[in-house]
Amino acid sequence: MAKTKKSRKAKKQSSADKPTLSLKEQLAQKRQATLARKEFISLLTTAGGTGLFLGLMIFFVGGIKLAIPAVLGILILSFSYKYPRHAIYAFIIYLPFAGTIIYYIGNNPVMQLAKDAFYVPAAIALWQTCSRKKQPFIIPQAIKTPLWILFGCTMLTLVFINGGQQFNPPMSNGVLTPPSGDVPLGVGILGLKVFLGYLPLISCAYYLIRDQKDFLLLSRTQIVLILVCCLLGIMQYFLLTIGVCKGTVGVEGDALFKATLEARCYVGGALLYTPEQGVIRLPGTFVAPWQWAWFLISSTFFTFATSFSDRSIIWRIIGLVTLALVFMNAVVSGQRIALALVPTCFVLLLFLTGQIGNLKRFIPIGGAIVLILGIAMAANPVVVQDRIDSFTSRWNASPPQAFIVEQFEDNWKSVKTPIGSGLGRATNSARALGSTKLVETYYPKVLYEVGIVGVLAFLGLVTSITIATFKVYRSIKDRNLRTYAASMWVFILAISYNTYYYPLDVDPVCVYYWLSIGILLKLQLLDQQLSPEERLINQKGQKKRPFKNNLKSQPSI
Q1: Pairing of strands 279-281, 272-274
Q2: Sign of CA dihedral 476, 513, 503, 144
Q3: Residue of 393, 475, 449 whose CA lies nearest to 189
Q4: Can you state the angle between helices 479-497 and 532-540, rounded to 10 degrees?
Q5: Residue 169 gets which letter from DSSP?
Q6: The whole model's pTM is what?
Q7: In sequence order, what are the beta bridge partners of 265?
Q8: End-to-end CA distance of the chain
Q9: Mean pLDDT highest for which of 5-9, 105-109, 246-250, 464-468?
Q10: Partner of 122 for a Cys bridge, out of 84, 143, 283, 499, CB 3.0 to 4.6 A?
Q11: Neighbours of 176 (CB within 10 A)
């Protein structure tokens, strides 16, 4: 009875806190809802009819495998442009499962670009909104000059190098024609898209977050995605170990050490599992094992931020469990770089965010992680030892620093002009349009494509981003927001100057890097929303009242 009375009292109090709408306001809301419903039905009818007509035409030419993506593409493009906020969320949710979805529907090359059907229309809609409301689209303003300088350098490369290869190709059997199937300008445009195409995500994330509720929704959505992906990664490993999935069996020679699609295990793409040779490379939910490794590395930053900064104890526990699963996947995935960088990034975050000195939070979370990992390691000592031996042997055979220096030297000699050898000429995703060179480290890859001029311009851009986000992070006063901002800034710092492999060229880091910049920049305004009373309540760790939106009106997407 006492509990019932309390719950009724709480409900009355919460209903009393809600402002009572006048009859005029209620009618206005109904009219708005009716108008939104009519617009949705109209768009669905128009886009659906257009998509079906186009799909029917393509069906007679290319079959059902091309017709269905065409229909879905028209629908997604239309709705993403009309509802950009929902499109950005769909883009973020689709990203970690793209590799799984692509191979479930037949490995259609068009589906490799499916995620951009959510992102590109939403970015265009945001740009138009900013232009209409006279709000800046390039954020922060400190990167505007370095960005235009870099864009100018890339245009020089695209016009003079890629354009020269297109319209003045080298002699081939006495004829001035490019090699069969080689489209240098197409390679350059795709290379530019990979190089800078996701930079507008800074603005998308910045305007996507309007208040504290939006920020919590985005950060918690990210944690749920990481949690689901990590559980699927563990499931993939156990299905291989118990024999449900066979792995790389029945092959010989070099094939024993190469990931293949034939060995695919329910989720993700190509994998390698040859236990008799002691090798394993799992792709998780992604297309390739390398992408899964960098997903785990980047997930360390997001899970750490939620574990230490979310205002809900339940979500801090969920963040902790997810962080432990990231550690477990780093061990069982067989990816040496994940095994090395996941714990390294965690320790780095503890010191750089100051959480090592916050004993009240660090001891329970740190102790729980150590306990979970200790139990997992005790249950699988052979697996742990195999991963450590693999990492040590790889390091001894090819130290990362020596490999990076070798890549710099090789590509420095290969580049004939200060503006590079052509955009996209070292980008794997552009190989369908022309010949490309495999460069396995990022800055040597940039050097090969846009030359020393482009490298210096790109360094100027990422340095301006790093400095601008550092100033924002240091200006935040709220403890929880400051911890989250610190985690994002360390991630930005690490990726900005990382040159081992090329994570900025592939999913998911090519998205998470720019997204985290936009999130961090918006945290400064969220911090300004907090009243002194709310800030005091937050510091004491008590339950907070609903946040007030004290910001001036901004473009909404």
Answers
A1: antiparallel
A2: negative
A3: 449
A4: 80
A5: P
A6: 0.88
A7: 267
A8: 47
A9: 464-468
A10: 84
A11: 10
